[in-house]
């Protein structure tokens, strides 16, 4: 995983040489928010970054620094969660991509680790693509690491209904694989309330008191995490090649 070309590990001549061959960049985007009583607050950012690095390695595509704090207003009743305002996140996405555009990057591929970012990524990146025309046009897209066909199949087979909607065993498994030293001891937790919507951060906490939505993270194992990273990389590699064609 460490062989990926990380922008932060390049010198400026390295990036210049890369751009002579390739104008693509992978941008991990996650979130910093509660993931139940046992999951790491950084889960979404850690998953997106690890999978982006592994995909960058498989594709020989550069990986930009991750966006680790994003839209998590609905988790703010749980201590330690952090959020950007929507307009801040849109500005961050614009400034990230515009900085890289000025140097010659033209294919912007976000690897997302957080459901709460989907609407803003969809809207913002569609807008950028529509406004980018002519010979110097850039293309923008994103993928949710957990949603590709191979990865979804594993999640369904292994976890079924226990996957739930938040603090899922699949995302916890990926963190067990990539950050073993940070993990809390596995605990058997009681059943989590099923998804029933929410209207605010306080309402979220009252409906889902320990932060989980319908999930059983005690099913997670680091071996499953390793397999999920591999399946996500296979899904993303196929999708990226189509995008960058
Ligand atoms: Ni998550």
Short description:
With 245 residues, the protein is of the alpha/beta class. It is built from eight helices and four strands, in the order αβαβαβαβαααα. The model has no long low-confidence stretch (mean pLDDT 96).
Which oligomeric form is depicted? single chain
Distinct small molecules bound, one entry per kind: nickel (II) ion
Determine the number of helices (DSSP H or I, runs of at least 4 residues).
Answer: 8
Beta strands, count: 4
* Shape label: globular
Low-confidence stretches: none
Tell me about the largest β-sheet.
4 strands, parallel
- Average pLDDT level: 96
Structural class: alpha/beta
**Strand arrangement in the largest pleated sheet:** 2-1-3-4
Please give the share of residues in helix.
40-55%
Distance between the termini: 25 Å
Describe this structure in words.
By secondary structure, this protein is an alpha/beta fold. The protein is 45% helix and 8% strand. It is built from 8 helices and 4 strands. The protein has a 4-stranded parallel beta sheet with strand order 2-1-3-4, with helices on both faces. The longest helix has 23 residues. The chain is globular. 43% of the residues are buried. The site of nickel (II) ion has 5 residues, from helix 2.
């Amino acid at each position: 995983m460490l062989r990926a070309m990380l922008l932060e590990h390049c010198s400026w001549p390295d990036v210049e040489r890369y751009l002579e061959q390739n104008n693509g960049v992978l941008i991990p985007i996650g979130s910093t928010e509660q993931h139940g009583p046992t999951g790491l607050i950084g889960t979404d950012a850690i998953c997106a970054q690890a999978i982006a690095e592994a995909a960058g390695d498989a594709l020989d595509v550069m990986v930009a620094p991750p966006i680790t704090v994003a839209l998590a207003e609905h988790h703010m009743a749980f201590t330690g969660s952090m959020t950007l305002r929507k307009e801040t996140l849109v500005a961050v996405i614009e400034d990230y991509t515009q900085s890289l555009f000025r140097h010659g990057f033209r294919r912007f591929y976000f690897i997302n680790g957080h459901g709460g970012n989907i609407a803003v990524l969809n809207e913002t990146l569609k807008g950028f693509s529509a406004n980018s025309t002519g010979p110097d046009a850039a293309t923008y897209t994103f993928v949710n690491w957990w949603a590709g066909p191979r990865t979804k199949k594993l999640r369904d087979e292994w976890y079924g209904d226990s996957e739930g909607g938040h603090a899922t065993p699949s995302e916890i498994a990926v963190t067990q694989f990539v950050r073993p030293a940070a993990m809390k001891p596995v605990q058997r937790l009681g059943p989590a309330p099923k998804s029933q919507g929410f209207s605010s951060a306080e309402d979220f906490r009252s409906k889902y008191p320990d932060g989980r939505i319908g999930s059983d993270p005690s099913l997670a194992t680091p071996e499953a995490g390793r397999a999920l990273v591999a399946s996500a990389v296979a899904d993303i590699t196929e999708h990226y090649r189509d995008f960058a064609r």
